[in-house]
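As promised in the previous annual report, we have extended the structural survey to additional targets. Below is the entry for Alcohol dehydrogenase-like C-terminal domain-containing protein.
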Amino acid sequence: VKITPWFLVPRAVRVRGSVIGSITDIEDMLELAAKANVRPIIQKVQMPDLNKGLDMVRDGSVRYRVVLEN
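The corresponding structure token record, generated without further manual editing, is:
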């Protein structure tokens, strides 16, 4: 994949990647997580408190993930 900096910079685009394993590794991990009933640890924020949730992410006070609820 060719990426031109002149396309990214003015648009403040970020390119990130992660090497976590092959497709088979990921499938095996998901199968194990399902068998072991692994669940994410999240903090729920009601939709009217959206700005509070965003502030938590920005200031680093959130633990794990913030999930917006209706």
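The beta strands are 42-46, 65-69. The chain has three helices and two strands. These points will be discussed at the next consortium meeting with the crystallography subgroup.
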